[in-house]
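dumping this here so i dont lose it
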């Protein structure tokens, strides 16, 4: 069974609306939401911050600051970025996949 992972690229208006609705919930409601992905605090020990570390991740809708396209930074992608790639938890998605890809292209 080859199930394709939803990376949040080219979301439907309904998916954006649902992600915005969940993002507006109280953190306790977000934590208990079925789409929430629990954080592994042991993998976040690389973060030297004065703030608190995330207990969970939720899908984060955003508009690309370059082209304005709406995408969703999926909870599972955040978990990978923060815990495996060791990104800082203050980092947020600001550019869509296409704009990030174009910026990394050697032709740019």
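and the seq i came up w/
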């Amino acid at each position: 069974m080859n199930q394709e992972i939803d990376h949040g690229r080219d979301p439907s208006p309904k998916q954006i609306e649902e992600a915005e609705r969940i993002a507006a919930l109280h953190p306790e409601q977000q934590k208990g939401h079925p789409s929430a992905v629990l954080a592994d605090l042991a993998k976040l020990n690389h973060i030297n911050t004065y703030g608190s570390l995330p207990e969970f991740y939720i899908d984060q809708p955003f508009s690309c600051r370059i082209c304005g396209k709406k995408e969703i930074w999926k909870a599972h992608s955040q978990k990978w970025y923060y815990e495996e790639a060791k990104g800082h938890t203050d980092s947020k998605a600001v550019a869509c996949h296409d704009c990030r890809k174009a910026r990394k292209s050697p032709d740019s």
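Residues 13-104 form one domain.
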